[in-house]
Amino acid sequence: MNDEAHWRTAGDRIQTLLDASAAGGPTARERAEQLVCEVTDLYGAGLARLLEIAAERDPEVRDQCVADDLVASLLLVHGLHPHDVGRRVGDALDKVRPYLGSHGGDVELLEIRGATVRLRFTGSCKSCPSSAVTLELTVEDALRTAAPEISEIQVIAAEPNPSPTVIPAETLLSRVHADDHGGTSWHPVPDLADLHNGEVGGFMVAGTTVLACRIGDELFAYHDRCGSCDASLAGAALHRRMGAAIGGPVLRCPRCRAHFDVIHGGAAVDADAGPEVHLDPIPLLVRDGVLSMAVQPTPTAVM
């Protein structure tokens, strides 16, 4: 894990240590929390003094500090960030727009009301549930980093796709929008990046067996369960259906021979399959330079 990702998760490690201190009783935890507060206040005061001194020498230093994600996060913790929430939300969206554009999409900021941000996605990504989920998670991740005071991000749905074989993106997002108690969390999965074009592999992530495959430059991940026969997908491979265009492979279940479109949310493509038959996608996202997967641990078959 790179340095940026390491420091970004420091808050979680501090909270874990505080929770562990509770084993010594209420007094021990209270003293541990007081110690963290004292250290935080001390470094906050020092950071404020440093900014004042640096700004006196060069007024552009403040903008350079704000442009650094790690420094900006510390400024937010100590209430020293010079930009209001509107500016920070706008800057965060500008940062991710090149990535959205690479997927044929964009995002429009509709309004900020209190602690709620309302957005609308546009572009060709609306036709691909997997892509839409990835882009929405990318934007959410950027906004919560830049504006932690935002408590709700509302995405205004685009026009419904008339095709009955496309899985609604809202269905896929329900997994990663679970509550914090036993819900979804992000896990680094750098090994997935080693898959070759057309290769399918099984991985164990947070106790959950997942199936991942690469098609060109894109990686896709699914829970290890066939949407048709409910069996494990161990041994599944990518195939090109007869008459299909080049570059459009599908995943075939090795047991019931059902075919699924891994690019478009795992929708079943067999003529006798209904829209309710599909694989269960798992979002993938590069967070702080590390390929990560949003997994809600569930019992699955072992590959």
TrEMBL record:
Keywords noted in UniProt: 2Fe-2S, Iron, Iron-sulfur, Metal-binding
GO biological process, one term: iron-sulfur cluster assembly
Domain Rieske residues, every copy: 186-293
SUPFAM superfamilies recorded: Fe-S cluster assembly (FSCA) domain-like, ISP domain
Organism per entry: Mycolicibacterium helvum
Name the UniProt record assigns to this protein: Rieske domain-containing protein
MF terms in GO: 2 iron, 2 sulfur cluster binding; iron ion binding; monooxygenase activity; oxidoreductase activity, acting on paired donors, with incorporation or reduction of molecular oxygen
Role played: May be involved in the formation or repair of [Fe-S] clusters present in iron-sulfur proteins.
Pfam families in the cross-refs: NifU
